[in-house]
Amino acid sequence: MNIVLATRNRNKIKEIKKILGDLKAGISSALDFPGLEEVEEDGATLEENASKKAIIVSRFTQQLAIADDSGLEVDALEGSPGVYSARFAGKDATYDDNNKKLLRLMEYVPPKNRTARFVCIVAIAEKGKVKKIIKGTCEGIIAFEPKGKTGFGYDPLFIIPEYSKTFAELGPEVKNKISHRAKAFLETKRFLEESLIIL
Questions:
Q1: Which run of H or of E encompasses 196?
Q2: Are strands 2-5 and 26-29 parallel, antiparallel or unpaired?
Q3: For the chain, which domains are there?
Q4: Distance between CA atoms of 142 and 104, rounded to whole angstroms?
Q5: What would the pLDDT profile of 142-153 be if each residue is shown by its tens digit?
Q6: How many CA atoms within 13 Å lie on the side-chain side of 29?
Q7: Positions marked active-site
Q8: What pTM does this model have?
Q9: DSSP code, position 167
Q10: Is 21 exposed, middle or buried (0-12, 13-18, 19+ CB in 10 A)?
């Protein structure tokens, strides 16, 4: 059995492989299929985007495909950037561009109102049909300035209250146990094992 991760994001692939590591299955990614088209994430929700990617990749590869879409929901911004997290500052925005825009919008928001959460939706598809949707969330607070050197995306701005540190300060070992993606993919792993899809 081989599983295809429907992403070309090397940071994400590394993170997911670490979580799913001891599954009795091969794990490849969209990078291993040069002819696979880039899937446009044009859904109105994280679930729509994850489902679309999983369906297209499972059809193309004829293998079990797992796709995720993640977003940051900031309460003071009424849930933004949400589904637009990766392109918050524009179509070709860098992580730094997105972080700067978020800090600008949150500049005068007091600490008690800086609550936010990361949400990860995982879609599992086989032969062009979605088999399961799984959700993982992680609550946190938006920092006033970036802190930490590890991780990617909004990690330098996302403080985990129990640790009083950002994801970027905590490092991958801790992040891969408590993050939204870790929770969603640990549940994904359990689902795959219990469903006997992987023997």
A1: none
A2: parallel
A3: 2-194 (3.90.950.10)
A4: 12
A5: 999 999 999 899
A6: 14
A7: 69
A8: 0.90
A9: H
A10: exposed
